[in-house]
Amino acid sequence: MGRGADIIRVVGIACGVALLMAAPPSQAREPTEEYLRVPMPPHFKVESTELEGPVFADPKGHTLYTWPFKLLRNGNTGDPKGQSNCTTTKTTVNAGFMSPYPGGFTLPDLATRPSCEQMWHPVLADKNAKAVDKWTLIERKDGGKQWAYDGEALYTSALDQGPGDVLGGDTFDHRGDDPAVRVPIQPPADVPPGFKVSTARTGRLLQTERDFSVYASDGDGPNKSNCDAACAKTWPPMLAPESARPHGDWSIFERSSGVRQWAFRKKPLYRYALDSEARSLQGSDVPGWHNVFTQRAPAPPAQFTVQNTTAGEVLADKNGKTIYTYFCGDDALDQLGCDYPSETQAYRLAMCGGGDVERCLGTFPYVLAPKGARSSSRAWSVIDIDPVTGHLASPGQSGSLHVWAFRGRPVYTYAGDEQAGDTNADGIGEFRGEREGFKAYWVRDDFNRRAG
Amino acid sequence: MKATTTTRLIGTLPRCAAAIVSMTLMAGGIASGADRTGPVKRSAAPARSAAAASTTNSAAAAAPAPAAEATAPAPEPTAPKDGTVAYVLTDLHWAIWQSPDGKTECPDGFNEGNREQFKALFPNDGQTRTLLQTQLRREIDGWYPTTLPDPFPFHEAGGPTAIGLNLDGKVGPNDFTSPEGEKGIDNNLFRVLGCVRNYRSPEGAIQGFDNDEVTKDVYNRIIIELSGVDSFVNDDDVQVTLYRGRDPILLDATGKEAIPGGSQRIDLRWGTKYIQHMHGRITNGVLTTEPRDLIYPWAVFYIPTDEYMRAARLKLKLSPTAAEGLIAGYSDVETWYSQLMRSYSTHHQSYGQSSAPSIYKAFRRLADGYPDSKTGLNTAISSALRAKLTQIYIVPESKQLVASAPPPPAAEPYHGPPFPRTPAEEATESGPKVASTAGSAVSNAEK
What we know:
The complex is a heterodimer.
Chain A: H1 3-21, E1 45-49, E2 53-57, E3 65-66, E4 70-72, E5 75-77, H2 116-119, E6 120-122, E7 124-125, E8 135-139, E9 145-149, E10 152-153, E11 155-157, E12 183-184, E13 195-200, E14 203-208, E15 215-217, H3 229-234, E16 250-256, E17 259-264, E18 267-268, E19 289-291, E20 293-296, E21 305-308, E22 312-316, E23 324-328, H4 346-353, H5 357-363, E24 380-385, E25 401-406, E26 409-412, E27 429-430, E28 436-440, E29 442-445
Antiparallel strand pairs in A: 1-2, 3-12, 4-5, 6-11, 7-9, 8-9, 9-10, 13-14, 14-20, 15-19, 16-17, 17-18, 21-22, 22-29, 23-26, 23-28, 24-25, 25-26, 27-28
Chain B: H1 2-11, H2 15-32, H3 37-43, H4 58-62, E1 85-94, H5 114-121, H6 135-143, H7 188-193, H8 205-216, E2 222-227, E3 235-244, E4 262-264, E5 276-283, E6 286-289, E7 292-297, E8 306-318, E9 322-332, H9 333-343, H10 346-351, H11 356-366, E10 369-371, E11 378-394, H12 396-404, H13 423-426
């Protein structure tokens, strides 16, 4: 198959997923995160996304990504500032960046493997383009100009088909042994000094600048705290300095003479004194107290449940079996993804069944969706999978499976989980699933922040 | 209530400051109540070992204060206040006995690991190979291991000596003798791991990481509480309860050494599965318990994994401020192997020349307990852990909540990956291709 056919295949399959995912929201619109208006080149924009909040987008609304340079175990890759390493050259062998073994082995499914540029389209600039604030221009190896943000070359993803898609990458739960992943770029969140926002599994979590969670109480009124001095020992108020000014969702009220407290959407804000870890959800165990989110993540499909484990809460199917996602970035110079249905399934098949499709289907069964099931969000979708190849099925294909997907990727359960709350497959894969493998869908993790 | 407030305050403080506050307030607030000066001064005593410690615990405070307490160490208390004392686990290692040069237990040398086996399988001979044939093949061998004969030589640890306990009450020809001279020691896990550098001290990376995470990751916060203790020296009826705590361990100024007197909440939110009861006795200052199946958390590098030990029993030398000794029993093989694979990447295993496929085969060969009812194959292996614990206080309100907590779910070992490979598929295992390096799969014990 030639290069053109590769592109058609990748894009065509991605289009199929996008069409299936385009279910109109049926629920009342939840508040979305506000952001600071910063200078941008003409025609660039900011799009609201369900999982990542506001992201920068190209004139078509496609999310913009960077490929941050990353030091891996045995080398490094990605884009250094001011340079793009993503080219039209197809990578054919692994690099051995993350292996005790040497590189140089032929990569799976080479005939259909795209080049970096086919998966990550450089955001090209015309010759008259001019830098604006953090938006600058870099010169590509072919002499063309490419937009950069904060010095890092910008791309769009072949997987994203429309505004609000963030299928190419995320900012969630990436750790040291992850691939050099692509990350969506975002405008600064519209929060006062002393606050920040990050992506958690359940939404965009409001935090202090030192990453500690921020809470609100059901016992308070609009811009009024009923948390007295004794209460405040456990729930220290988020105080606003004299110079602070209300704006947008943010208000300030006087909790006692001369003592000003921040409120978000009129809810007074606090920290929880017993939080010993950043981004904790532990305060929400206290009746009437809740973490604060600038926007909530879409609810999973109604047939799913949440189960307690020994570390927190996981998403589970209707029978209580833990839900797993499969994540994969290959160990090649261009670090392409290998977890989307249009990408190679060789790594997943190795992990889920030792390379055997039938065992894979038994060990990590897809989570079947009822006939006619629809998602009320873009994050969750129903897709048709060819169970033999793991790729998307063609319309009407015999034997295809109607399955739930998160971010366009199927989700699974594990046959080795016997009781509700078992997470025996969490970390099955290379580098505990950081490089490629199965991860439990943590809704809350009180010990190692795997839910955000 | 004072203790509750203390704990909340401590939760807001950096670790070192929390240590100081905890020691000060706990000693003053709980131990002595009225006179804070004495216990606080005593807490500055440098000794931390089980033998030499004399510090801030409740038993110490209950003892009569000597006249010159600012300069003389307090006498060792003979019993804990109210008959209860708790310790938190600070160190945990698989018990590997080592001779100075390693030649007694590993006369044939140490085992080779992933990297060396890979090189033998796939030499740099100019041949083009695929990732599927090589690296992913090796991953599959790790995640879907078999009991096929190991094509690589595997050096089991041998010799007369091993650390552990006599688990079956017998003295057999293949049993070890402990360093203290006790006969009948059962520790086949030592046979498997004793000649794998990753599990030897001090250089073994896995034994180091395993132990580091005991203190670093609160998921692993194991508390052992003794109640009904009339004497630290002799008491034939002691109740032992295991909990999981929720708090960081109180450390000294180096940030590495645990010090007694810290406080812990009991994890009733996620950790009820770990609440387990044992019956024990104290003889000449050593606690021994009756055996029971035990689940305990041991997460490494953030994946929440547990271990499951059948017929586990404790043998711990006690002092008012510390406990040290062994946890021994039959470790469930599949649970153990799952913890290894999910915690340690091939890269990490290669630090210390360990090969998971070879280790699995050895585990299966040497498993010596709990035969499967269908296959008759042993599912567990005799083993021992070296453990160190430091005295702590359990926050009183936590104890009150325990009484009203719902019964914990029954803990089960992990039964391994479902749908084992067929013999035909097993024949594709990367190992058998290596004819030149094929070694004997007969264990030392069988020779």
